[in-house]
Design a protein that fits this description.
Number of strands: 5
Bound molecules: FE2/S2 (inorganic) cluster
Shape: globular
Order of helices and strands: EEHEHEEH
CATH superfamily: Beta-grasp domain
Number of domains: 1
Number of helices: 3
Helix content: 25-40%
Oligomer: single chain
């Protein structure tokens, strides 16, 4: 069975098989989700925000332990969260891209003065 995963920031939707991790889905969709531990719930770099109505498997013990209270705020580890139905996910902007965008915005503001 396939399920729709929507990456909201990038406005990309893909179909993946039930049980596919959000990290695998992101890679398939060519959406960048940072990762340093190769999906072993070790680095916490793959945190994503999922919409309330998203259909994911319950958190594994490892994911619950790693996320702590963040798990109650719609945050999941993309490498551990398995797709079980329709999912809408927000991937945080890459920090380098965010820094460049902020710098360009500051420069543009200074150029106006
Ligand atoms: S990829 Fe490292 S915790 Fe998910």
């Amino acid at each position: 069975m396939t399920n729709k995963v929507s990456f909201l920031h990038d406005n990309i939707q893909i179909e993946v098989k039930t049980g596919t991790s959000l990290l695998e889905a992101a890679r398939k969709a060519k959406v960048i989700v940072r990762s340093r531990c190769s999906g072993k719930a070790g680095c916490l770099m793959c945190k994503v925000t999922v919409k309330d109505q998203s259909n994911l498997a319950p958190m594994t013990k490892a994911e619950r332990l790693k996320l702590g209270s963040l798990g109650n705020q719609g945050i999941r580890l993309a490498c551990q969260a398995a797709v079980m139905g329709t999912v809408e996910v927000q991937v945080p902007e890459d920090p380098l891209k965010a820094a460049v965008r902020a710098q360009l915005a500051r420069q543009k503001e200074e150029d106006l003065w």
